[in-house]
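WARN  no MSA supplied for this record, continuing single-sequence
INFO  ligand: zinc ion
INFO  echoing inputs
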Amino acid sequence: MRAARSALDSALEFLLPPVCASCDRLVSDRTEALVCGLCWARLPLLPAPRCERCGHPSDQYDCRWCALRPPFVRAARSVCWAMPGTALAIVHALKYSGWTRVAEGMGTRMARLAFPDDVRRERTALVPVPLARTRMRERGYNQSGLLAAQIALRWKIPVWDDVVIRGRATETQTRLTPEQRRRNVSSAFTVAPSVGARLRGAHVLLVDDVVTTAATLNACATALFDGGARIISYVTFGRAPSVGDRIETTGDLLNGNSRRH
Ligand SMILES: [Zn+2]
Ligand SMILES: [Zn+2]
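INFO  complex generated
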C-alpha cells in the first residue's frame, strides 16, 4: 500500500507544479532537486567546535558522545541537527513520502563532511544500515542505501549493501527508552557469511539518515567488526541532539518553518 502510494507520489511529482518537499513553497526550477535553496540554507548545522572523533559539538576534552562509541569506531560525522523543522521535513520526505530524489541533495552534503585524513585515505566502502525485509517491502527502497549511492559517486568508493543482514524486524524505536533500544537492536544485525574475505581489514563507513542514540549504528558496527572489518566510521545526515547539547543555529529556530512538525 505504502509502496503504491510512493509510486503515485513519484508520478504526481512530474505532473504537479514543483513544490519544495520541506516548506511546500512553489519552486521555480524543477532541477532544484525537490528542496528549495532557502530550506537547504537554513539547515541547523552542527556548531563548532566539534569533537575530532565523533563530530559532536563539544569543547571538552572528555566527550560524552565518544564514550558511547565502541573503541573500533574511528570517526562520526553528521550534516545537521535532526530537529523539527527543515531538517526533519527533509528526512521524512525521503523516508516516508517517497521523495527519493531528495537523497541527492542530502548525499551531496554528507559527502562534503570533513573526515580526518586517515579516514579519507583508508575508507574502503560504504555500508548502508539495512532495513528489515518487511519494512523494505513496504517502502520499496532503503533510504540509507540511496544516500550511500550518492556519497559513493563523490568519494569514488563502492557501496556494499549485501554485507550486513538485518534479522528480525525491530519495532519502531521512537517510543522506547535508550536501554530498550539498545536491547532491541543488539542482536538484529549479522554479517553475511560469504563476505568475510572482502570485509577483512577494511575501514567501512556506515551510512544512515539519522543517528539518535547510535544504538542501531553501534550494533551494526559491532556486527561488521565481528565479521572482520578493522575500523568503522559513521556518516549520517541528521543527528539528534541530547540533553545539554549546544544547539546554536541561525536556521529553524528563528523562522519556525515547519510543515510536518
Ligand atoms: Zn523549501
Ligand atoms: Zn566525541
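Residues 51, 53-54, 56, 58, 63, 65-66 surround zinc ion (ligand 2) (CB under 6 Å).
INFO  checksum written, moving to next record
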